[in-house]
């Protein structure tokens, strides 16, 4: 009870000014409902160092990402997986990301361009803008002075050459080499190297040892034709060393010779059956391998990717403090082949120590997780600490979310995303991001006819449509967020009740 003086003071105040306090009954609610009275907050970003991707949809904050800056702190690995249906902005994201990374002096990028139009790859415009000539691998042009990459290039270690030869054969055959075929390939490779000694042997041994004085060193690079010839006519010494008949060694290597003959005298001839073309500038800031003339559904594509990947591993990646980005379109050719995937696993592990970020672009995750290389695909996906998912159908989104461990709200929003907006998962930091493209970048990144026609409309109209699409996407995202908020804070959750 109040003291008499306090009671008298309250009575006098009420008489002069009226009642100054009101009594209000408490409202019982849940924490899930009560959180709506707080001001909206945004999840923390990834820092302010790196390249600008766009803006985070919920908060409007700028979204900045750089795997080299985040590696070791927020990222356990600098590798990146990009998923989504065609026409939703994957290509535009890749191109602007590369253009913005190249503004840093210590960046270098290699792109395997597997898509194209009008006889050139879709990275052709960007290459021209930077004054770079793409390395076009084309079986029809290879015989007329086209580009060649030699799997037996002396810059590749002996072990790397043999591993690459095995991968080429296993991809083409669709199965692993048995011990006898593997032995025939091994002795043929050793015999070829003994015929072409090099004083620059990368294994640290003199390749001419035991052969010195018998024939002068040759200046010509060993090529696949030499391997095929050795498989057809193996040396007696190799058979005697294993106490087997020479005819048996020849029979064991027959299937191997037939597979390699396709690269020498078949539909892939000209690209890999000669010395590496001189003048390929591996110091250029951007190196584009144009694979658009290769049938993407043929066995040639994974063979090409295996050869290019190993060739780059031994000729491009160097301990020179440069940050390198290896971007592969149609990457399911890599992840879906056990033999190619094993090579790229080694490349990813090796490259991480030397500043390599591997970017794989895939349309559907089901293309790889249900394929023949499920184990290898899981290992590569695990190394990709950054995942960007554009719009997918609901069933595909649920499967993607289960494989990648995405939160439920992200899985639900993926089918509703509009072009240019994606879910970004950076080692558990999940955001919805709108990719922004500058006017200078627009003519370089929208290269297909559909996008070119769309960009031909008046600028004001295009901007108005884009703003309307952005507003619609943001409203949809906010509505789903509120729905999720209400669903997660149901009145039935008695344990979360409190008094406000």
Describe the protein's topology:
Elements lengths: L3 H14 L10 E3 H4 L16 E6 L5 E4 L1 H4 L8 E5 L6 H12 L5 E7 L2 E2 L2 E2 L2 H6 L5 E2 L2 H4 L15 H16 L5 H17 L28 H9 L3 H6 L4 H7 L1 H12 L20 E5 L9 H16 L7 E6 L3 H4 L2 H15 L3 E7 L3 H4 L4 H10 E6 L4 H11 L3 H6 L7 E6 L2 E7 L6 H4 L3 H7 L3 H30 L8 E3 L1
Parallel strand pairs: 4-11, 4-12, 5-9, 5-10, 8-9, 10-11
Antiparallel strand pairs: 1-15, 2-3, 2-14, 6-7, 12-13, 13-14
Helix/strand/pairing category: alpha/beta
* End-to-end Cα distance: 26 Å
Q: What would the average pLDDT be, to the nearest integer?
A: 78
Strand tally, please? 15
Uncertain parts: 199-217, 449-458, 489-500
* Oligomeric state of the chains in view: single chain
Which strand order spans the largest sheet, edge to edge or round the barrel?
3-2-14-13-12-4-11-10-5-9-8
Major sheet size, sense and barrel closure:
11 strands, mixed
Backbone CA Rg? 31 Å
| Beta-strand percentage range | 5-15%
Helix content: 40-55%
Treating each run of at least 4 consecutive H or I residues as one helix, how many helices?
22
| Shape verdict | elongated
Question: Can you give a write-up of this model?
Answer:
Strands 3-2-14-13-12-4-11-10-5-9-8 form an eleven-stranded mixed sheet. By secondary structure, it is of the alpha/beta class. It starts with a helix and ends with a strand. α8 packs across α9 and α13 packs parallel to α15.
Features:
two-stranded antiparallel ribbon; 500 residues; disordered C terminus; 14% strand; eleven-stranded mixed beta sheet; elongated
């Amino acid at each position: 009870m109040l003291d008499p003086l306090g009671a008298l003071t309250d009575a006098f105040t009420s008489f002069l000014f009226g009642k100054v306090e009101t009594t209000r009954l408490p409202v019982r609610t849940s924490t899930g409902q009560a959180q709506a009275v707080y001001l909206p907050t945004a999840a923390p970003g990834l820092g302010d160092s790196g390249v600008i991707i766009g803006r985070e949809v919920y908060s409007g904050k700028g979204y900045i990402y750089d795997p080299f800056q985040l590696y070791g702190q927020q990222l356990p690995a600098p590798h990146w997986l990009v998923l989504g249906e065609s026409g939703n902005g994957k290509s535009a994201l890749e191109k602007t990301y590369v253009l913005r990374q190249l503004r840093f002096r210590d960046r270098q990028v290699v792109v395997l361009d597997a898509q194209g139009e009008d006889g050139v790859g879709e990275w052709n415009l960007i290459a021209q803008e930077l004054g770079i000539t793409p390395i076009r691998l084309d079986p029809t042009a290879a015989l007329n002075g086209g580009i060649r990459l030699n799997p037996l290039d002396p810059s590749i270690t002996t072990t790397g050459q043999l591993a690459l030869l095995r991968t080429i054969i296993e991809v083409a055959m669709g199965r692993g080499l048995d011990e006898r075929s593997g032995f025939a390939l091994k002795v043929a490779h050793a015999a070829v190297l003994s015929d072409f000694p090099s004083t620059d042997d990368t294994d640290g041994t003199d390749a001419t040892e035991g052969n010195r004085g018998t024939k002068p060193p040759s200046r010509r690079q060993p090529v696949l034709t030499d391997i095929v010839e050795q498989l057809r006519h193996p040396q007696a010494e190799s058979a005697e060393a294993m106490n087997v008949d020479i005819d048996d060694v020849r029979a064991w290597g027959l299937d191997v010779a037939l597979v390699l003959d396709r690269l020498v005298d078949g539909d892939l001839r000209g690209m890999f059956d000669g010395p590496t073309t001189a003048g390929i500038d591996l110091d250029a800031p951007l190196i584009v391998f144009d694979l658009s003339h290769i049938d993407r559904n043929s066995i040639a594509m994974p063979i090409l990717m295996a050869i290019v990947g190993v060739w780059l591993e031994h000729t491009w990646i160097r301990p020179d403090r440069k940050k390198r980005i290896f971007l592969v379109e149609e990457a399911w050719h890599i992840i879906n082949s056990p033999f190619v995937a094993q090579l790229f696993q080694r490349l990813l592990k090796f490259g991480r120590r030397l500043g390599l970020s591997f970017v794989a672009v895939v349309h559907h995750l089901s293309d790889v997780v249900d394929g023949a290389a499920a184990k290898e695909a899981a290992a590569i996906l695990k190394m990709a600490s950054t995942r960007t998912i554009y719009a997918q159908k609901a069933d595909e989104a649920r499967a993607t979310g289960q494989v990648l461990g995405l939160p439920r709200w992200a899985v639900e929003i993926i089918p509703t995303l509009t072009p240019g907006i994606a879910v970004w998962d950076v080692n558990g930091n999940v955001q919805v991001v709108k990719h922004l493209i500058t006017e200078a970048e627009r003519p370089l990144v929208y290269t297909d006819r559909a996008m070119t026609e769309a960009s031909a409309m008046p600028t004001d109209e295009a901007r108005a449509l884009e703003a309307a699409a952005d507003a619609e996407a943001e409203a949809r995202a906010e509505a789903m967020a509120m729905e999720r908020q209400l669903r997660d804070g149901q009145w039935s959750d008695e344990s979360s009740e409190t008094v406000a």
